[in-house]
Amino acid sequence: MAPRNRLIIVANRLPVNRVKRKGRMVWETSPGGLVSALKPLVTEAGGSWVGWSGSPGKAPPAFEHENIQVRPVSVTAEQVEKFYAGFSNATLWPLYHDCVRTPQFHRRWWWPYVDVNRQFAEATAAETKPGDTVWVHDYQLQLVPAMLREMVPDVKIGFFLHIPFPPLELFAQLPWRREILAGLMGADLVGFQTPQGAKNFAAACKRYSDARGGDTKLEHRGRTVVVKPFPISIDIEHMEETATSESVQARAVELRKDLASSRHGERKILLGVDRLDYTKGIEIRLRAYEELLRRGTHTVDDCVLVQVAVPSRESVGEYAELRAFVERLTGRINGEYGEAGRAAVHYLRRNLNFEELVAFYRAADVMLVTPLRDGMNLVAKEYVIAKTDDDRGGTLVLSEFAGAANELGAGSLLVNPHDVDGLAATMDVSLTLPEAEVDRRMGLLQRAVRKNDVFGWAGSFLEALRS
Ligand code: G6P
Question: 240 and 229 share a domain?
Answer without folding.
Answer: no
